[in-house]
Write a structure and sequence with these properties.
Radius of gyration: 23 Å
Number of helices: 10
Number of strands: 35
Oligomer: single chain
Shape: globular
Structural class: alpha+beta
Helix content: 10-25%
CATH class of the largest domain: Mainly Beta
CATH superfamily of the largest domain: TolB, C-terminal domain
CATH architecture of the largest domain: 6 Propeller
């Protein structure tokens, strides 16, 4: 059994965001190769990547978009999620701030630049709480103006090739997204799908005619589909999937479409040859994670070259190129840890089990090398509209090297399994989802190689809420627990939610009666497992008072705990040093109590 220190598994760059230049020659991306997330660019015909920014301490880059003569990108400071816009003209000059207000969010899309290059569409708060309007920023004189406002949460999508029309998404809830079209020549905003309709429409690229565009939708169906929509109201289904669609891209000629298709707990690259209506052979591209639910994009050049991120259980996330049917993808830059080799990493098993009500659930099961029996960790993902996939998980691989198994189920409410599956947790946080987590624990403990008396519960964000719920409902079962950024008080979660997603959150969590009855804070005295609590000091979603209230209860009831407060982080870990600090503490916690 290999015994690398924890740092070796984390010794790789992390990536986020992707943008392709209009001429298809250059890729821009965000990477923390030097410890923080900076902006890089790389020519696709070869040559080393070049770092474009030297962001200050506690500042990180986010989304990207090529504009005329430069690159627009967003930055956040210390996890506050108040994304600001900056413009980088060239590598010799410092970025210029484009933000109109430093106390609000500014959101952009990688295809949000006008084809002329001088205008950039972005979203920023409107007049009412929770309202986001769409603005146009002139990158020459740095003035901006509001161009779309409906009183709802709007996000800019993609421009038509002639620059006349802009697709805009209107988010009523996480599972209700409508589409509007802005005619920039007249200022007229037109709905192309009904408002508050029980469906999701995700805007994609435009076809070369400038009057039709690609969307991903689940309207009237169990799973996702690609649809061509026209300004005149025409709709044509181009391809249907067996799961959700996490992302898509299309070449400028409208001949080839790349899809990040969710299939049984993993994402796979699917490439559709539109004229022939057939899928190309992408079997040489491993399954894993290609898109973080519309936060990463896929791009297709006119020569068919497809660009995307890929993370698998044996390869960290990195930008990839796929050239032709039957060929494996080519990495743009090495991403493997410098010391850990591929054959040392364990590939998980895709397993299925039944919930209490007979619902079929899926999960990823990692077994250490050896005969066992082994202690095991049950991990619950955030969201709830998210999923665990077989991507690179450095902490998981470290635990496996220490003889600790790992099971990551996708309980009801997870993304990737269709609309009805995702909605099963709607207004039922702490109900059937917790029952699924407990069922997953029983399944894990029933495995012959798992030592059932040495099992731990671990969750992040919403998954932290589920983990704490299991810990108080089954105190005799769990030997240890870890809560990463998890809410413990649902009433407080809604009361203090950021205005930009408070409405959608309130519509999905539960009834007023359920909020207090299902909050783990009010049952903290029943938690007996030693608990590690991790909190970002600047977390705008799960405020610091949530974790402090839990810690006060644990102290009052003499429950063993460790409280780790990250001073420069929000709802997650942007700094590489923070990740190491958190997972070193988590490793100590698990090894102490699972091997006691």
């Amino acid at each position: 059994m290999f015994r690398h220190p924890l740092q070796h598994f984390f010794n790789h760059p992390r990536y986020r965001s992707l943008a392709l230049s209009p001429d298809g020659s250059t890729l821009a991306f965000v990477c923390d190769a030097d410890g923080r997330f900076d902006v890089f660019r790389q020519e696709l015909d070869g040559g080393p990547r070049r770092r474009l920014t030297q962001l200050t301490d506690q500042e990180d880059a986010g989304a990207l978009a090529f504009v005329s003569g430069g690159l627009a990108f967003s930055t956040d400071r210390a996890g506050c999620e108040l994304w600001q816009l900056q413009l980088l003209r060239d590598e010799a000059t410092a970025p210029r701030s484009l933000a109109t207000r430093s106390d609000t969010q500014h959101l952009i899309h990688p295809r949000a630049a006008h084809p002329g290059g001088e205008l950039l569409a972005f979203a920023a708060p409107g007049a009412a709480p929770g309202q986001m309007d769409v603005f146009l920023l002139d990158t020459k004189d740095f003035t901006s103006r509001s161009v779309a406002s409906t009183g709802a949460y709007l996000l800019p999508g993609t421009w038509s090739p002639d620059g006349r029309y802009l697709l805009i998404a209107e988010v009523s809830a996480i599972d209700q997204i409508a589409l509007l079209v802005l005619d920039s020549s007249t200022g007229v905003l037109t709905r192309v799908t009904p408002a508050n309709h029980d469906a999701v429409y995700i805007p994609g690229p435009w076809f070369p005619d400038g009057r039709s565009f690609l969307v991903a939708t689940d309207d009237g169906r169990k799973f996702g589909a690609l649809m061509r929509m026209t300004l005149a109201g025409g709709r044509t289904i181009l391809h249907e999937t067996v799961g959700d669609i996490a992302g898509l891209g299309m070449d400028a000629a409208g001949r080839r479409i790349a899809i990040a298709a969710e299939e049984d707990g993993a994402q796979r690259l699917r490439v559709l040859d539109l004229p022939e209506r057939r899928l190309l052979d992408t079997s040489a591209v491993a399954c894993g994670t290609l898109c973080d639910r519309w936060n990463d994009e896929l791009f297709v050049r006119e020569d068919g070259l497809t660009l995307f991120y890929l993370s698998t259980s044996q390869h960290p996330k990195q930008p990839m190129l796929w050239r032709a049917a039957g060929l494996p993808p080519e990495p743009l830059a090495p991403a493997m840890p410098a010391v850990v080799t591929q054959n040392e990493l364990i590939v998980p098993d895709n397993v299925h089990f039944e919930a209490d009500d007979g619902l079929r659930l899926q999960g990823w099961l990692y077994r250490p090398r050896g005969t066992g029996p082994f202690p095991c960790v049950l991990f619950l993902h955030g969201g709830p509209l998210a999923a665990v996939r077989p991507d690179y998980a450095p902490f998981t691989q470290y635990l496996l090297s220490r003889g600790i198994g790992f099971f990551a189920p996708n309980v009801r409410g997870s993304s990737g399994f269709g609309r009805s599956f995702a909605r099963l947790v709607h207004r039922d946080w702490g109900g059937a989802d917790v029952a699924d987590a407990r069922t997953a624990g029983r399944y894990m403990r029933s495995l012959p190689w798992v030592e059932s008396s040495r099992c731990a519960m671990m969750g992040v964000s919403y998954g932290g809420f589920l983990a704490l719920s299991c810990l108080w409902q089954e105190p005799q079962i769990w030997a240890a627990g870890i809560d990463l950024f998890g809410p413990v008080d649902l009433e407080r979660l809604l009361r203090n939610a950021p205005t930009n997603w408070a409405t959608a959150l309130a519509a999905s969590v539960g009834t007023d009666e359920q909020l207090r009855a299902r909050s783990p804070l009010h049952y903290a005295e029943k938690i007996t497992a030693p608990l590690l609590v991790v909190q970002g000091a600047n977390d705008p979603r799960v405020r610091i008072e949530q974790s402090e209230a839990l810690v006060d209860k644990l102290r009052q009831w003499n429950t063993p705990y460790e409280y780790l407060l990250l001073p420069n982080e929000g709802h997650g870990m942007a700094e590489r040093a923070s990740s190491l600090t958190v997972f070193e503490a988590a490793a100590r916690h698990l090894e102490r109590y699972l091997f006691a």
